[in-house]
Amino acid sequence: MNAATRLKLPPVVMPEQDPSERVHNIREVPFGFTPAMAVQEAQRCLHCTNQPCVEGCPVGVRIPDFIQAIESGDYLAGIGIIKQTNLLPAVCGRVCPQEEQCQKDCTVGIAHGDVGQAVQIGKLERFLADWERENHAAVIPQIAPSTGKRVAVIGSGPAGLTVAGDLIKLGHAVTVFEALHMPGGVLGYGIPEFRLPKEIVYAEVAYLTRLGVDFRYNTVIGKSLTVDEVRRDYDAVFIGSGAGLPNFLGIPGESLLGVYSANEYLTRANLMHAYDENSDTPILHGKSVAVLGGGNVAMDSARTALRLGAHRAMVIYRRSEEEMPARKEEYRHAVQEGVEFHFLQNPLEVLGNPEGWVTGLTLQEMQLGEPDESGRRRPLPIPGQTSHTLADIVVVAIGNNPNPLIPAALPSLQMNRHGGIITDEETMETPIPGVFAGGDIVLGAATVILAMGQGRKAAHAIHALLMRTTEIARD
Amino acid sequence: MNTICTREELGRNVVRYVVDAPLVATHRKPGQFVIVRVTDHGERIPLTIADANPEMGTISLIVQSVGKTTREMAMLKSGDTIHDIVGPLGRPTHIEQFGCVLCVGGGIGIAPLYPIAKGMKEAHNHVITVLGARTHDLLILEDDLRTVSDDLIVTTDDGSYGAKGLVTDAIRSLVNGGTHIDQAVVIGPPLMMKFTSLLTNELGIPTIASLNPIMIDGTGMCGGCRVTVGGEMKFACVDGPEFDAHKVDWDSMIRRLGTYRTAEQVAAERYNHECRIGLDAAEAR
Ligand SMILES: Cc1cc2nc3c(=O)[nH]c(=O)nc-3n(C[C@H](O)[C@H](O)[C@H](O)COP(=O)(O)OP(=O)(O)OC[C@H]3O[C@@H](n4cnc5c(N)ncnc54)[C@H](O)[C@@H]3O)c2cc1C
Ligand SMILES: Cc1cc2nc3c(=O)[nH]c(=O)nc-3n(C[C@H](O)[C@H](O)[C@H](O)COP(=O)(O)OP(=O)(O)OC[C@H]3O[C@@H](n4cnc5c(N)ncnc54)[C@H](O)[C@@H]3O)c2cc1C
Ligand code: SF4
Ligand code: SF4
Ligand code: FES
């Protein structure tokens, strides 16, 4: 097939649950590609020699190569290519902000002048990963002979899972310590089932367990074990404790009944299954839910509210549609499901009744001024323009900061002004020898793939360190 | 999975468990707590570590049945397992030689008070303990506290045991009688903590209170345990659970505890119905 023919092929539409139906269940929204659909979508790729897509992927997945494998029907080869650089393709294919990464500069999208027309790299990645899982085709890789070295990984989010996966294959013994009773970090407690089925996360963890990774749940490092004890018992430590500290707005009324942080709202719903009537964990079922923020966390909260039976779910964001950081697909899905968007509105106060329950919000109307340091136009209040809106639940989804537990337990770590651990950019090593860090605890709330990218860098550096010390010991 | 070694009824609807939890036993300090999930579909609930035996790798938990999860826990026998226990969480109590320390406990709050009183005694303080209960058979741990206190006063609302009245009455008469108190610690039902704290504020006695807001993760991740202290938002699981009692916004904290009252009643009723146990729900609070 020549390039001109390929360019004429329209994007294959992935079938999805109907919006009116899916707001009543928690099952995943897109159904995935059939093999025929995947092959058809793969045919849209031009196999560019300059590979702008690979440039755009933070871990440099060999995109044209795996797409070629799909086109020729060799799915096993395709998934093998992805897994060389990306341990969790079933996750990334679903949650990466592709339109800002691999698909952003895709030649096909550029040729059509619309990033929405780019080759759907993420969906193809998901296809291969799902194919592998559903066909139990995961190849158990060759594990290097034991090096006798032990590595401790703190946190089982994407950063920690990546480090564990890379190092176990190189022959090191790996223990993952997780504070919660369940693995995955945000993949488990934060991102809802309808966007990332938990079965996928468990399958990845089961795979790592088969490779020999030892998972210890209910273990808070800094509390159940001190960081010094961990350092004493292990040859290297990786801190992947994430950005689990929810921000609040600091406005009046935030301790009223019915005000949640998004973390609490989503944790109750996901980790503790509060959407299930038989779960013991309660959650308030509001009629009218106002979500404050404009990122993925806000989309997830608003869509969760609908699934919990809210008649009205509103996203209240202080900038405009254009600046909204949420993935485009999540925004589209939220709109389809009937989530209302109120742009250029900044909450000033949460209002309550005399019994202390939330009744609504006072909002300040905003306009956009000059760009700020993030490059987005700064929202400025329009004097005198305020309004009220009714709500019986308010979910604060304005971001998370690095979890301070480990930094507090290890005072010799250095922190940036957002509370992130400062590391060497190449090795991810902290100023404390043998202690590495990566993911949201370094970047602040970022993305799954960036967390995994840092995990991979750290794994390389940890391996190099452990082999160096092995050499020295042998001399 | 943590195995229950022993089970003992301490009073009406109050059970003491000694549970296998080696890491918690060796790392905990007075004032810290664990989060427990009884079954694998269960809720996560915080419970204070009432005592620990590091050599045996065990901790004791004292649980009062008030709702679905605590009732479910009360059904467990020795040899049964608790699905998850995580901890020790929270900051330990600040224990030093203050001089005369007043330990005030009410209801199930007497359980978390015990390790603190013990710690204060070991730090060579003169420990005066005041325990409050609604009625005599709701009083727990009197003997344990007596062994770590120089003086122990009991009050009951109905006068069925000790002095009739509230703990605040006992504190006032202590001070009126000339006792000088350097530091107070209060743990109990929120209303009792509020009124004790108002009184000690008036009397100029520095006071710490151990707060019991609703929690989920216990690691600072959800913000559900937030309380207002000195006008600032604090997360009780990581910044507390103990705070300067005189700075706590008690009314907001008490209100937030009632967030799930209806949902909890439904869960508890369903549970009661399901297993038809005869626990006395009327004494839940
Ligand atoms: C609701 C929500 C939606 C999101 N949507 C997307 C999306 O669509 N696409 C995307 O790319 N990114 C998304 N993100 C961001 C992404 O999930 C994170 O960037 C990523 O999970 C960070 O990975 P991590 O491994 O650094 O940390 P985390 O995933 O946060 O995992 C950290 C783990 O460490 C554990 N831990 C913390 N402290 C300790 C300790 N002291 N001892 C033991 N364990 C500890 C925690 O319990 C947790 O399990 C979303 C985030 C949220 C909250
Ligand atoms: C740091 C901390 C330490 C604690 N230590 C102990 C302890 O050692 N022993 C013990 O028996 N309990 C202790 N508690 C309280 C215990 O966690 C609650 O009783 C338990 O969560 C109730 O769960 P449930 O499902 O049985 O009842 P629910 O059905 O959840 O609640 C039943 C009733 O109890 C009230 N309630 C709910 N949560 C709490 C709470 N956190 N504190 C007080 N009342 C509550 C509800 O308003 C309701 O009226 C502690 C709480 C905290 C935060
Ligand atoms: S990992 Fe993410 S950015 Fe990279 S190719 Fe896959 S979907 Fe695109
Ligand atoms: S840029 Fe687009 S068309 Fe070109 S190789 Fe990558 S995916 Fe294929
Ligand atoms: S219990 Fe979640 S932050 Fe304290």
Summary?
The complex is a heterodimer of chains A (475) and B (285). Chain A is built from 19 helices and 15 strands.
In words, what does this structure look like?
The complex is a heterodimer of chains A (475) and B (285). Chain A is α/β, with parallel strands linked by helices and 475 residues long. Chain A has helices spanning 3-8, 19-22, 35-42, 52-56, 63-71, 75-85, 89-95, 107-112, 121-134, 158-169, 186-189, 198-211, 227-233, 262-269, 296-307, 328-337, 405-409, 440-443, 448-474; strands at 150-154, 173-177, 214-216, 236-239, 245-246, 259-261, 288-292, 312-316, 340-342, 345-352, 358-371, 377-390, 393-396, 400-401, 435-437. In chain A, the strands form 4 sheets. Chain A has a 5-stranded parallel β-sheet with strand order 3-2-1-4-15, sandwiched between helices. Chain A has a 5-stranded parallel β-sheet with strand order 6-13-7-8-9. Chain A has a 3-stranded antiparallel β-sheet with strand order 10-11-12, with no helix packed on it. Chain A starts with a helix and ends with a helix. The model of chain A has no long low-confidence stretch (mean pLDDT 93). Chain B has 2 domains: 2-89, Elongation Factor Tu (Ef-tu), domain 3; 100-257, Rossmann fold (3-Layer(aba) Sandwich). Helices cover 29% and strands 32% of the residues of chain B. The model of chain B is unreliable at 275-285 (pLDDT under 50). The A-B interface holds A 179-181, 189, 217-220, 223-226, 244-246, 248, 250, 254-255, 257-258, 260-261, 263-264, 267-268, 271-273, 278-284, 355-356, 403-405 and B 23-24, 27, 37, 41-44, 68-69, 83-89, 216-224, 226-228, 233, 238, 249, 252, 255-256, 258-260, 263-264, 267. Bound molecules: flavin-adenine dinucleotide (2 copies), iron/sulfur cluster (2 copies) and FE2/S2 (inorganic) cluster.
Using brief descriptors, characterize the structure shown:
heterodimer; A: 475 residues; alpha/beta; Fumarate Reductase Iron-sulfur Protein, Chain B, domain 2; FAD/NAD(P)-binding domain; 3 domains; five-stranded parallel β-sheet; globular; B: 285 residues; Elongation Factor Tu (Ef-tu), domain 3; Rossmann fold; 2 domains; seven-stranded mixed β-sheet; 16 strands; 29% helix; binds flavin-adenine dinucleotide; binds iron/sulfur cluster; binds FE2/S2 (inorganic) cluster
